[in-house]
Design a protein that fits this description.
This protein is mostly beta strands and 617 residues long. The protein has two helices and 46 strands.
């Protein structure tokens, strides 16, 4: 059996003991406990560096971009920042991993690659600066083949062992090898050696290094099934060289499904904030049906036995309460539901399970329903507001095998700060109304007292209950531009404003928001743009229909025209590190609606202007 009896008994005792601790969240104060799942996501990768956790992800469906987020807490990933996009050149950007190697940040992933006839290849990105949120540059396709030529790869990872950097990855539809393979790397961006099999018949190889032992984990079984599980092999140096398949010995299954946790696997490994504990981050299925691949992110502590092999407890379900990682600051000061001010039909309820304190807030079923809490901060600045919520709406087409409604629809409420509508907040589906997850936003607060509200506005769908909120100083600033959306094509009849991370939209035959009518709307984005290089920049705008761009008061692109899907350009000299005012306007007339802003320079590859280089007014 993969799980020892004493471990199960310990967990049951801990759950009973901590039930009272969970209720203490009814008093505002530091966080002491948490429960899984944390948030929706797949193939999570986390690394701890200089006091911060960095989570690297792509996305569901057919992703073409890579995101990195930063947080002081392992419990909440922080704001996702798009650090690279390969639309047009790459599809199915799967399972990116962020590594700090030889003094620099790199991201490794596999993707369908245009230059390789759309084969699924391993790609490496190198960070633009020493901050992994400042964007990455594509360093190209890695060699992951052998004497037969370069070959497809799946789920690439790296690890430094005994001073040598190695790459490990899964083979994909290959007639020469089976399962996971490996090769030494010449540098973080180059492989010349031929691949060798290492005996792990599982996808997603990821390493655990502990006291000189190298353990390579992998995900076995069907990725969207309850049979998906975490397995591992350990390298035995006494048995031979690392690239000899016979030198790798299998370990027992590390994690597998339980009655209420399905398909726990695709794990990455880190430590608690004080370095005293080992933690695993992994995904599991949101819905129980096999061949339903919507997933959520979880964390759990693990240990090592006397031989140095990892020991994982039974994956904790949504009703189990756990102590937060050692030294972790948590997600902020807690504001439980019973302390909020309610109006318009919002009401405190207590019929569901697994909530904290005395109850939670429901009743978001009609316009005007509103829940407000007050927070006092010592100084003005950017703060992270996180809410624990449930959205257990049942839609059969979302939860069945091979779902025909994919991904699931979201609930939504409008977020207000001090009476000003900031944005529409979306809430992913949870397994049911007894399962809770976290959703967060960065907001700008003034010094002293602030009122934060969630309100059911026109265009919202509700479908959410709220358990508590937490507020902390944000570890990253607000990024993106302030978008103003007008119901008319001449920038009149303002309907909403919100923060948009970048200008890259395709509304097809629709509109940006339910408050906006299709075909005859317009938008204006404002803020600042900060280049990395002191060079002449070319800006590109592909749009359906008109667009114009000002930078530092200079009209760079002026094509206020009805034509569609044309790309127009303009150039301007910019200085590195200087923030320039930017205004971009767009209008739509009939049919499809899309607009996109890109840039390039002698040192800057052409890319969508990323949120890392944008800041709001």
């Amino acid at each position: 059996m993969p799980y020892a009896y004493h471990s199960i008994k310990k967990r049951i005792h801990l759950a009973v003991l901590l039930a009272a601790s969970l209720a203490t969240l009814a008093c505002t104060g530091p966080q002491a406990t948490f429960s899984n799942p944390l948030y929706q996501g797949e193939d999570p990768w986390v690394t701890f560096h200089d006091g911060s956790y960095y989570v690297c992800t792509s996305g569901p469906l057919d992703p073409t971009a890579v995101y990195v987020s930063k947080s002081p807490s392992l419990l909440e990933r922080g704001e996702k920042v798009k650090v690279w996009e390969g639309a047009g050149e790459y599809n199915r950007v799967f399972a990116p991993e962020l590594h700090f190697v030889q003094g620099k940040w790199y991201i490794y992933f596999c993707a369908d690659t245009k230059s390789e006839d759309w084969r699924h290849m391993a790609i490496v990105l190198e960070a633009n600066t020493d901050d992994p949120l400042d964007g990455f540059t594509n360093k190209g396709v890695l060699f992951t083949g052998d004497e037969h030529g370069n070959a497809q790869a799946n789920d690439f990872t790296v690890v430094t062992y005994n001073g040598q950097l190695y790459g490990f990855w899964g083979s994909l539809a290959d007639k020469y090898v089976e399962g996971a393979v490996m090769a030494p790397m010449d540098s973080p961006t180059k492989i010349t050696a031929y691949r060798k099999e290492m005996g792990l018949n599982a996808e997603g190889p990821r390493a655990i290094l502990h006291n000189g032992r190298l353990i390579m984990t992998g995900a076995a079984g069907g990725f969207a099934s309850k049979d998906y599980r975490l397995v591992a092999m350990v390298y035995s140096p006494e048995a031979g060289p690392i690239d000899d398949k016979a030198s790798w010995k299998p370990l027992e299954t590390l994690m597998e499904s339980t009655a209420d946790v399905w398909g726990p696997s695709r794990a990455s490994f880190t430590v608690s904030a004080d370095g005293k504990e080992h933690w695993v981050m992994y995904h599991s299925k949101i819905f129980s049906a096999d061949d339903n691949g919507i997933r959520q992110v979880n964390i759990n502590r693990f240990t090592f036995d006397d031989e140095g092999n990892p020991v994982f407890d039974t994956p904790p379900g949504p009703s189990e309460v756990l102590p937060i990682p050692s030294g972790d600051p948590g997600i902020g000061s807690m504001y439980p539901a019973e302390e909020w001010t309610l109006s318009g039909g919002a009401a405190q309820e207590s019929t569901r399970k697994n909530y904290t304190g005395a109850g939670y807030i429901g009743g978001f079923v009609k316009e005007g329903a509103k829940a407000t809490f007050s927070v006092e901060v010592p100084e003005a600045g950017d703060y992270r507001v996180v809410v624990r919520y449930a959205n257990g709406v049942y839609v059969a087409d979302e939860q069945k095998s091979f779902p025909t409604s994919y991904p699931p629809a979201e609930g939504s409420l409008s977020l207000y700060v001090n009476g000003n509508r900031i944005k529409r907040t979306n809430f992913h589906r949870t397994t049911n109304w007894d399962v809770w997850m976290l959703a967060g936003e960065i907001v700008r607060l003034k010094a002293g007292k602030n009122e934060i509200s969630y309100r059911f506005d026109s265009g919202d769908v509700g479908q959410v209950t709220l358990d508590f909120a937490a507020v902390s100083k944000s570890s990253t600033p607000l990024r993106g531009l302030r978008g103003s959306y007008f119901n008319n094509s001449d920038l009149t009849d303002l309907k909403l404003t919100r923060l948009d991370p970048e200008i890259a939209f395709n509304w097809r035959n629709g509109s940006p928001d339910p408050l906006i009518e299709g075909d005859t709307f317009s938008c204006r984005w404002e803020g600042f743009i900060e280049p990395l290089y002191s060079e002449t920049y070319t800006f590109y705008s592909k749009s359906d229909n008109g667009r114009r761009l000002w930078i530092d008061g200079t009209l760079v692109i002026d094509k206020w025209l009805d034509d569609y899907d044309q790309t127009y350009t303009g150039t301007i000299e910019l200085q590195a590190g200087k923030k320039y005012p930017i205004v971009y306007e767009y209008y739509e007339k009939d049919g499809g609606a899309n607009t996109r802003l890109e840039w390039s320079s002698a040192s800057q590859d052409r890319e969508m202007v990323p949120s890392a280089r944008l800041s709001p007014p």
